[in-house]
Amino acid sequence: MTTDSLTDVAGLRVGHSTRIGDGQLTGTTVVLAPEGGAVAAVDVRGGGPGTRETDALDPRNLVQRVEAVVLTGGSAYGLDSASGVVAWLEEQGRGVPVGPDPSHVVPVVPAACVFDLGRGGDFKARPDAATGRAAVEDAARTEPFAPVVEGNVGAGAGAVVGGVKGGVGSASVRLASGITVAALVVANAAGSGFDPQTGALYGRYYEGRKADYPSPEAHEEAKRRLAEAAAKNGRNAPPLNTTLAVVATDAELTKAQAQKLAGTSHDGMARAVRPVHLLNDGDAVFALATGEHALDAANPLALNEILAAGADLVTEAIVRALLAADSVETPGGTFPSYLDLYGNPDLHVK
Q1: pTM over 0.85
Q2: How far apart are CA 259 and CA 176, in angstroms?
């Protein structure tokens, strides 16, 4: 039995710390690797990224494995949440060994942030070290293979995609080779997640079936409601955003192969959000490989099926994030969900 989420990759756990109410609409999500870490890489393509420790993931550099990846709200301020994860890992003795004593470790925790400042009403409400610690503790106490909680949680609490409420989404697949590939996204983009001509989700164009087209009447009503929300929020509000993803596999990958996976997985983002990778986005994809299954050494193209799956799963995870999100109205803005605007597309598949 699978969860159809990132935790189908054995050993990975996901935790959220969500801050909603009293001016807050933000949070932090932590992907916790198995003890001993996972091979990791990153590919950043947005023009306005906010990151921490991503240079350590360059295949030319020393660090081979990481114990956790942090996705957080709060823009650059929210990167402080990684400090809480570092402190927790140090207490567990998990990190890069740097001395003779087992406690002498330096946890390398890559992190990236999304822009959600002020969406709850208070510009100064943002994740901090305590938020990060709460998220990693939440991950640590989950059972193995526990489904990922999706929607308005963690780093997705204040996420918005083109004026529609975004959030956390996840998906997985087990390939014919027995290798598992999975993705988790925080969908928070300046671009749109659906076709402005029809209202159909862009990501549904790539799921091997005809897209789910809302009725023309439903689409006109949705456009009216979105225009009202935009007017209420202020049309001149800067669409500062970012979509983040973690793509993971239980295959044995080098850092260079993991970096290739992170790069091609951006294709899945481009299928589900248009436009993408803008100057006011900080789009980034992390790749993790736990090494349970060796690739076929006799087949130099064995990585291809993992690369293709990573892109497909990022697309699917963005769709799931949009469908899992709930509408939000705060002093900082009105952000209707796709389901509230159009209803459930699974009920009218053609």
Answers
A1: yes
A2: 23
